[in-house]
Structure formats: structure tokens, C-alpha cells
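Input C-alpha cells:
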């Protein structure tokens, strides 16, 4: 890629910078992953930085695409705001979240004069200082020897540079590079491991790309191995996995000896046959030195609610980073109780794109070397329609793929989830009749990679819950699949939705706004009231018998619908138990399962 040298920063330079930074992080990704020991040695800092920057670059390209059919190019303010917003919504991991705030801090200065076509060296100095300060403020407990130190050093060096953007950018790069080399002397975990800070190394690459965007000449980017490092185990990530976005909820490997129940989230005790194992504090988790889970989500909330959220999450765990503003935030925290971290977000506002990662082997806070992660024998991968069910399935040990309303996952996302499950045997639950062929294609692809995959054609998330309830990893694979298939097949399913338009159905003509009750995929009831329609549907389903009713309530359902249906079952159907879950934004107002 050849650039024309320039002394100022405009929209085109922002676009060029994003492309060069993405290339630089792609080149250094594996090496950065390999030296990732702080705050968690999970070998993904380079990958997280790459994916965060990829989201920023994609947003900038979208702005430019809007001008392709017209004339001119976007304003600088449009480009930097898109860059910051793209990084915010696509931030991955601790390092990616901090990078997003660095870019946001720069954008606050660079977009200050919305009509300006470009900025000079003095404004770039201010932008780098704002970036470093805002990133430090976003971290609950800043630690020296990390990317924060490197960012501050870059800003300090830039402030001492007089001249145009080329001079300022080069000074920032050199200052960051010197600070990076000093990080092992500031953080004991780095010194013990013999590495520099991985997040700081990524920031040096991003600043090197900024220099190249101005000068047209690549900086002498030192390989990681020129710093004093030692080999460190890193997880395997196929290059093609970087071609697609990660699924919205990352893996929680199924632990051994799990004992608690899915019903713990509903406040209702599930009958013995309905219980599904969920992880306690796992023997292979972070150990007494630190939490077992990383939780990340986007959050729509006001400033006051976020201030309260910060305090609550700080008490729950560590590595807390909350970035963003203007009503949209990216929340990152390491906790022992992933459910509590998500619930705190629900209380603060509307969390979505929830990702939960189980750290796995090793003491993540002392930096002691851990053995390479071995494949689990068996895992379950499930597509789920809402954030509530995603958390529910994940705590039961499943690797989940979140399917937002109107946005079904592609086969590539399912293959990606199967890889992340990191197991020799995988049970795949599509939980949607329309995803059967997509899931079959994903299963076939995974088999070519040596993974044994069984596809259970679940058509609803409630059938998936039934299958997961009888899942026993200790059984022979074929026996486990047979039992899970049988449980899913014995579960009738229904959903309550609102008609979007007039149409013919198996129950007659419906109008836009009518409440529809679908049983096993077909419209069975057309009504005007959600609760009344749900009651009619439930009665029809229980006429054929049943022992357990599962209700998954969406965010837009009436607050009283679950209680009224529970009372209906209790009063009219003896010996039938009811379990209620919160599904979040799941598309349907209500999902019903009868088994």
C-alpha cells in the first residue's frame, strides 16, 4: 500500500490509517497473542485488537461508501466518529475495549470542529493526550506497565514535539516504543514471563501505522522477539476465523462435575427431571487468585446509571473497563459470577451483544505458566434467540450463538462456534426449523476438520432446553445424542407473536397487530390479547398431556403473563410443573414448551 506523504490529518488519512493499522495488527497478531500474560494469560490480545480495529475500519469504509455515488469525500468529523463508534461496538476483550476508548478520546478532539476538513500537528497532540487520559479514566484501577502506560508515554512525547502531523505522530510512536520496552520493569508478571505488555505492543503497531499514513513509509516495526520474551502457550486460531465476526456470545467450556440448575435464574425450583447442569467454581478456572469469567456487553444507559453500574461491577470482580458515552457503552469485567454481572447491566439499562468467556486452565492473575489447553471430549453448541437464554445456556455449559430477530446466523458462525467449543465431539442444537440446512452445512464443514458432530434438529429453544437437560458428557456419544434427541422430540413447542401485516394463516386471516399463537410452527390461535391467547394455546397443548411447562418470557411481553399462566397450570392441571425463564429480546413475546 503506497501513500502520498502529507502534513495534516483528513478523512482520507483516517481511512488510510485504519487500513494500515489493520494490516499491522494482522501481521503481529500471533506474536502478540503469544506474549499475552496480563491481566489474563488467555492468548487472545492480538486477536482482540485486530477484531476491534476491523470493526472500526469497516465503519469508516461504510462512511466513504456513502459518497461513492456522489461527489467529494466525508468530513474529518464523520470519519473519526465512525472509527470511534465502530471500535466501540466491536471491541473485544480488555485490550480491545481500551483501544476503543483511545480512539474515542481522539475523536472527541478531532471532531470538535465539525466543519473542518483537516487538522494540524497541534490538534493531533491534543487528540493523543485526550486519548490517553480518557482510557485511563475508563479503567477502574489503572496499572502501570500496561497499554495505559504506553498510551501516556505516546501523549507525553507528542506534547514535546513541535511541527506538523508527521513530526507529532513519529514522536508519539517513538515514545510508545520506548515505554513498551520498559514495561517488564513495571509489572512483575511481565518480568517473570520475560515479555513486554501485549496490549502495549498492539498500540505501538497502531501508532506505527499512523506514522506510515502521514509519511508513506513503513516504520521499522520490530518483531516481538526483539524484546526479551519467552515462549508462552497460546490458543490456536485459524486465519480464516479472522475473516468473520465472532459470535455475540463466546464460549464457556462445559466443566466437569457441574451441579447447579438452569432453574436458578427463574427463582423457581425445577423438577428433578428438568434440571440441567451449570458450572460451579471450576477446578480448572482462575483459582483463588482471580475470577473465572470475562463478561463483555454493549449497554444503552444514561450516565447516572453507568456510574452506579461501575460501583457494582467493581465490587463483583476486577479488570473493570467501561468505555463510551452519549447513551452507548461497552462494559468489560472479570468476575466470578457472570450472571450477576449481566443482571447489573439489566438494572442499569439495556445490555446486548453479551459475550461471556470462561478463562480455563491456570492461575490467570499470577502469570504462572499453564499447560496448553486440551480439547474437551464433548461439548454442546446451541443457537439461542435472546440474551437471557444465551446466558442460561452458557451457564449450563453450552457454547452459544446469539440469533437476533431477523438476523439468523450463517453457517460460518456456527462452524466458528464449534471450533471455539474445542471438543472432539460436538452436539449441535439449531433451535430453529429454518436453520436446519445452515446447521447441517456447518456440521459437515466441522467434520472435515476432524470433529465428530451430531446435529439434533431442534426447532425451538425450549426443545433445546429439554435436550440439554438430559445431556450427560460421561455417556457414550451415540447414547447421549439419542437421549437428547428423544427429549427434544417429546417436547411440543409454541410461540406467541404479533402479526406484522395482514396474511392468510392456518387459523384464518389475521390483521396487522393481531396476537398469533403458533403450535409446532403453525398458527393455531388468532387473538387480540397476549395473555388470553397464550392461555388458549397452553390449554390446547396440555390437552394431550404433559409433566412440565417451560415458559420463556420476552422483554416485550406483559409483566403479568408468566404469573397468570403459572396460576392456570397450578389450578387446572395437577402434577404439572412450571419453569419460567427470562429470554430478553428474543423476537417472540413468549415461548412455551410442554414435555
Amino acid at each position: 500500500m503506497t501513500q502520498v506523504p502529507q502534513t495534516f490529518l483528513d478523512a482520507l488519512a483516517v481511512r488510510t490509517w485504519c487500513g494500515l493499522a489493520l494490516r499491522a495488527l494482522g501481521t503481529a497478531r500471533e506474536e502478540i497473542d503469544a506474549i499475552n500474560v496480563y491481566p489474563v494469560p488467555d492468548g487472545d490480545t492480538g486477536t482482540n485488537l485486530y477484531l476491534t480495529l476491523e470493526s472500526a475500519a469497516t465503519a469508516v469504509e461504510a462512511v466513504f461508501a456513502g459518497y461513492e455515488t456522489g461527489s467529494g469525500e466525508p468530513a474529518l468529523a464523520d470519519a473519526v466518529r465512525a472509527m470511534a463508534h465502530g471500535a466501540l461496538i466491536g471491541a473485544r476483550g480488555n485490550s480491545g475495549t481500551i483501544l476503543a476508548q483511545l480512539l474515542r478520546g481522539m475523536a472527541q478532539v478531532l471532531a470538535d470542529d465539525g466543519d473542518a476538513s483537516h487538522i494540524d500537528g497541534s490538534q493531533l497532540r491534543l487528540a493523543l493526550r485526550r486519548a490517553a487520559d480518557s482510557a485511563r479514566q475508563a479503567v477502574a484501577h489503572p496499572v502501570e506497565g500496561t497499554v495505559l502506560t504506553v498510551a501516556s508515554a505516546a501523549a507525553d512525547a507528542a506534547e514535546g514535539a513541535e511541527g506538523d502531523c508527521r513530526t507529532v505522530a513519529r514522536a508519539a510512536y517513538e515514545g510508545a516504543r520506548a515505554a513498551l520496552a520498559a514495561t517488564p520493569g513495571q509489572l512483575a508478571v511481565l518480568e517473570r514471563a520475560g515479555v513486554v505488555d501485549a496490549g502495549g505492543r498492539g498500540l505501538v503497531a497502531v501508532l506505527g501505522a499512523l506514522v506510515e499514513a502521514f509519511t508513506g513509509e513503513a516504520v521499522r516495526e520490530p518483531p516481538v522477539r526483539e524484546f526479551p520474551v519467552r515462549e508462552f502457550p497460546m490458543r490456536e486460531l485459524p486465519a480464516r476465523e479472522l475473516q468473520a465476526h465472532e459470535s455475540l456470545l463466546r464460549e464457556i467450556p462445559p466443566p466437569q462435575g457441574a451441579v447447579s440448575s438452569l432453574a436458578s435464574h427463574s427463582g423457581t425450583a425445577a423438577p428433578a427431571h428438568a434440571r440441567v447442569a451449570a458450572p460451579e467454581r471450576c477446578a480448572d478456572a482462575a483459582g483463588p487468585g482471580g475470577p473465572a469469567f470475562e463478561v463483555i456487553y454493549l449497554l444503552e444507559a444514561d450516565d447516572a446509571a453507568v456510574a452506579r453500574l461501575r460501583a457494582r461491577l467493581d465490587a463483583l470482580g476486577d479488570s473493570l473497563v467501561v468505555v463510551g458515552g452519549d447513551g452507548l457503552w461497552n462494559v468489560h469485567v472479570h468476575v466470578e459470577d457472570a450472571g450477576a454481572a449481566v443482571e447489573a447491566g439489566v438494572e442499569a439499562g439495556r445490555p446486548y451483544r453479551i459475550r461471556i468467556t470462561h478463562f480455563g486452565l491456570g492461575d490467570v492473575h499470577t502469570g504462572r505458566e499453564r499447560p496448553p489447553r486440551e480439547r474437551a471430549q464433548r461439548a454442546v453448541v446451541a443457537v439461542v434467540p435472546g440474551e437471557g437464554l444465551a446466558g442460561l445456556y452458557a451457564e449450563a455449559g453450552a457454547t452459544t450463538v446469539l440469533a437476533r430477530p431477523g438476523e439468523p446466523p450463517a453457517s460460518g458462525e456456527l462452524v466458528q462456534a464449534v471450533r471455539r467449543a474445542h471438543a472432539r465431539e460436538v452436539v449441535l442444537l439449531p433451535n430453529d426449523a429454518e436453520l436446519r440446512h445452515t446447521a447441517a452445512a456447518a456440521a459437515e464443514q466441522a467434520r472435515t476438520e476432524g470433529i465428530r458432530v451430531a446435529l439434533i434438529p431442534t426447532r425451538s429453544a425450549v426443545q433445546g432446553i429439554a435436550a440439554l437437560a438430559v445431556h450427560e458428557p460421561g455417556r457414550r456419544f451415540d447414547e447421549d445424542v439419542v437421549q437428547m434427541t428423544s427429549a427434544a422430540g417429546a417436547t411440543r413447542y409454541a410461540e406467541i407473536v404479533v402479526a406484522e401485516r395482514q396474511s392468510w394463516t392456518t387459523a384464518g386471516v389475521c390483521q396487522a397487530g393481531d396476537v398469533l399463537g403458533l403450535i409446532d410452527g403453525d398458527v393455531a390461535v388468532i387473538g387480540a390479547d397476549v395473555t388470553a391467547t397464550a392461555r388458549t394455546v397452553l390449554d390446547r397443548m396440555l390437552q394431550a398431556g404433559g409433566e412440565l411447562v417451560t415458559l420463556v418470557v420476552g422483554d416485550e411481553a406483559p409483566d403479568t403473563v408468566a404469573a397468570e399462566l403459572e396460576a392456570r397450570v397450578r389450578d387446572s392441571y395437577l402434577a404439572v410443573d412450571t419453569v419460567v425463564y427470562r429470554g430478553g429480546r428474543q423476537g417472540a413475546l413468549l415461548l412455551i414448551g410442554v414435555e
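DSSP finds 18 helices and 18 strands in the chain. Residues 224-288, 361-372 have pLDDT under 50 and may be disordered.
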